[in-house]
Design a protein that fits this description.
Mean pLDDT of chain A: 87
Strand content of chain B: under 5%
Largest sheet of chain A: 6 strands, mixed
Largest interface: A-B, 57 and 68 residues
CATH architecture of the largest domain in chain A: 3-Layer(aba) Sandwich
Largest sheet of chain B: none
Radius of gyration of chain B: 21 Å
Radius of gyration of chain A: 25 Å
CATH class of chain B: Mainly Alpha
CATH superfamily of chain B: ABC transporter involved in vitamin B12 uptake, BtuC
Oligomer: heterodimer
Low-confidence stretches of chain B: 1-7, 366-371
Number of domains of chain A: 2
Shape of chain A: globular
Order of helices and strands of chain A: HEEEHEHEHEHEHHEEHEEHEHHEHH
Low-confidence stretches of chain A: 1-11, 32-42
CATH class of the largest domain in chain A: Alpha Beta
Shape of chain B: globular
CATH architecture of chain B: Orthogonal Bundle
CATH superfamily of the largest domain in chain A: Nitrogenase molybdenum iron protein domain
Helix content of chain B: over 70%
Helix content of chain A: 25-40%
Chain lengths: 346, 371
């Protein structure tokens, strides 16, 4: 008891337990009306309504989406790539952008993409550092297509609070890219570009055939470090960022007839130290360029100049968009380029 | 019991005193509501003021005061719907959450400064916020389901804040009255908790993405439901805390004097820390870690209204709410097309304030001890 030396009971005596009960009741009441709130798991959709189709996205969620929507916000370059190649560019009313401090549109899209896909800042929906729900709603979309760039709680908020279906397309393999394009064809049955799926399948088949032929000839597959970013040697935690198991990057190297040195990593996107790369001794080193990255950036990585692949001249630049964006262009342009670099004579 | 010595009330306080107690609170409440409404006009999407006003009036009055939900401007149905959603379902919940979280941090900061008799105490600097953050991070990693998340989240944040508070309290008791020891204890605990959080984050890549988004802080995740939960907890914690102004005044006289006047200092301090942890947890659970609000707000109040904790506690809640609202507005005005996390703005304002305070104290008390 607080201010009562005589020991007379004070009304405050029961305040703490009462407060706890009150908090519990208030929280429970709030949670009861929290039909829109979520952090991790997403609720399944009900049966599809007329004019909608049920699709299962890359998160395993079944989502009811309108058939042939005319206003779509696309929050990932690889999906914009698919939309453009399917002839659906005019339906894209919003794309992902970084905040102005991080480059806006150019933070997520290369100059070539901005030009060829006719992207303007008017399309911007800020996703970094956090999603701007205002930007998104301002585009009045009927559908949102996103990768894992958007958190699950945001997906839940968009879909349940505002009734806008959200489909996540984040393929983990090259085959997954084809699956996602087929899924888009389900949503947009009237889309031109029907031959795209066939082209993608042929690209994978060609690479697979080449690999099989090389294996049959007894050609050894080179060990490869496909690096998309480096932390400079001068920083506290320097290293090479690459692709581990279960990622499209690792799948890309394998399809191109190489063996990624991080294929046995316990992390999907590991950062390897200079010592680890030296120990793995990759025969070929491929580094992504663009978005402010060039050879000089990579030369700042630990032990770059000591790597045998570099001293032997087996280090090659490759457009970052071809190795980090799991869309049709990765299959149609990135895979052939990688194959040619790893097996020049084939 | 009279109020402890403090800065004499400034002009705003003298003006306010012309009104009765109810009048003063009515003025503050009206001012706060006006700021809240005005803040709804600021956002990344440029919406004409008449549309914002129409949406607010329409939603508040159920259409009685503004029959057209988006005002007189001709808007397509989908566009009008998006305007309603932006103003009513995005902006207003975020603004309310700013006010609620700011109030929680303000009252928590005032309480901690009183409990520790230390003007540099703050839920952020003492590690309470980090403790709450660790609790929330554990929830992310544990993958609690949709239905349970909103219920479990505040409790875990509370447990984390309370555990940290207990450690800090024990350290403060052992560390006599040294300011540096108390602050360094808070810093050390914060760092330790951050390391634990990092381990949790690294152990789960998917969960880590969630934690990263959340740790950026801010008001983007606000919904009416979350506002309701946070408001409930803050009303309970803040309401009870505001009844402890007299005891906090006594504590400022020193534990021995307070004891001789019949105050069971240890018990009161424990209760106050418990309630301050609850208030902090309610803020952290839904906004992430936002620093310095709890430090700055009580100091503003003391300069304006004096050092009586019966006034300082509720007024710090009010100022904290206003502070976070203004910080949010500044963030939006500074970078209109970017949603700058509000924690960055509070850090820009709070860190220099903290340094100035520390510098003044060192000039007043060269050994760094309590004056």
């Amino acid at each position: 008891m607080a201010l009562n030396p005589s020991g007379t009971p004070s009304p405050r005596r029961h305040m703490i337990p009462a407060a706890l009960v009150a908090v519990a009741v208030l929280i429970a009441a709030g949670a009861a009306i929290a039909t829109t709130a979520a952090y991790f798991e997403l609720r399944p959709s009900g049966p599809p309504a007329p004019g909608t189709v049920a699709v299962t996205d890359d998160l395993g969620r079944t989502v009811n989406v309108p058939v042939d929507p005319s206003r779509v916000v696309v929050l990932s370059p690889n999906i914009v790539d698919s939309m453009v190649r399917l002839g659906l560019r005019e339906r894209v009313v919003g794309v992902d952008c970084e905040s102005a401090a991080f480059g806006g549109l150019t933070g997520d899209y290369s100059p070539a993409q901005i030009t060829s896909w006719n992207l303007t800042s008017a399309l911007c929906v800020q996703v970094g550092p956090t999603l701007s729900v205002e930007d998104l709603l301002n585009k009045t979309p009927q559908l949102v297509l996103t990768s894992t760039i958007v958190s699950l709680s945001d997906i839940e908020e968009i879909s349940s609070t505002y009734g806008i279906p959200v489909v996540t397309l984040a393929p983990a393999t090259l085959g997954g890219i084809v699956v996602d394009v087929e899924l888009l064809r389900t949503i947009f049955p009237s889309a031109p570009g029907a031959e795209l799926v066939g082209e993608l399948q042929r690209s994978i088949a060609n690479a697979s055939a080449l690999s099989s032929a090389l294996a049959a000839n007894g050609t050894a597959f080179p060990t490869v470090l496909l690096v998309y970013y480096v932390t400079p040697a001068a920083s506290p935690s320097p290293g090479y960022w690459t692709f581990g198991p279960g990622t499209f990057g690792e799948s890309l190297v394998e399809a191109a007839g190489g063996v990624g040195i991080a294929a046995n990593s316990t992390v999907a996107y590991p950062e390897l130290s200079g010592a680890q790369v030296l120990a793995a001794d990759p025969q070929v080193l491929l580094y992504g360029t663009g978005f402010g990255l060039d050879l000089s950036t990579y030369q700042g990585a630990p032990d770059w100049g000591n790597l045998p692949a570099v001293t032997a001249g087996h280090d090659y630049p490759i457009d970052s968009t071809l190795i980090t964006e799991a869309g049709p262009t990765m299959l149609l342009e990135g895979l052939p380029q990688l194959t040619a670099l790893l097996h020049p004579g084939a | 019991m009279g109020a402890p010595a403090g800065p004499s009330p400034a002009v705003p306080a003298r003006l306010l005193r012309r009104f009765g107690r109810r009048g003063r609170w009515a003025i503050l409440l009206l001012g706060g509501t006006a700021l809240l409404a005005a803040s709804a006009f600021v956002g990344p999407v440029a919406i004409p003021p008449e549309t914002v006003a129409a949406v607010l009036l329409h939603e508040v009055s159920g259409g009685a005061l503004a029959p057209q939900p988006c005002g007189p401007l001709p808007l397509a149905s989908a566009v009008c719907q998006s305007r309603i959603e932006i103003v009513w379902d995005v902006r207003l919940p975020a603004l309310l959450l700013a006010a609620i979280a700011g109030a929680a941090l303000g009252v928590s900061g005032a309480t901690l400064q009183g409990v520790f008799r230390n003007p540099l105490a703050d839920p952020y600097l003492l590690g309470l916020s980090s403790g709450a953050a660790l609790g929330v991070a554990a929830l992310f990693i544990l993958k609690v389901g949709v239905a349970e998340a909103n219920i479990v989240l505040p409790f875990l944040a509370f447990a984390g804040a309370l555990g940290t508070g207990a450690i800090v309290l024990a350290a403060a008791r052992r560390a006599s009255r040294s300011v540096e020891t108390l602050l360094l204890t808070g810093v050390a605990i914060s760092n330790l908790l951050s390391a634990v959080m990092l381990v949790l984050v690294l152990s789960n890549p998917i969960g880590s993405l969630q934690v990263t988004f959340w740790l950026l802080g801010g008001l983007g995740g606000a919904t009416w439901a979350r506002d309701g939960i946070a408001l409930g907890g803050v009303l309970v914690a803040g309401g009870i805390l505001s009844l402890y102004g007299r005891e906090l005044n006594l504590l400022q006289l020193g534990p021995e004097v307070a004891q001789s006047l019949g105050l069971q200092a240890a018990r009161v301090r424990t209760r106050l820390l418990f309630l301050a942890s609850l208030a902090t947890a309610m803020a952290v659970a839904f906004t992430g870690v936002i620093g310095f609000v709890g430090l700055v707000s009580p100091h503003i109040v003391r300069r304006l209204l004096g050092g009586d904790y019966r006034v300082v506690l509720p007024a710090s809640a009010f100022v904290g709410g206003v502070f976070l609202l203004v910080a949010n507005d500044l963030a939006l005005l500074a970078l209109p097309t970017s949603e700058l996390p509000v924690g960055i703005v509070t850090a820009f304002a709070g860190a220099p304030f903290f340094l100035a305070l520390l510098y003044r104290r060192r000039r007043a008390v060269p050994d760094g001890g309590m004056p």
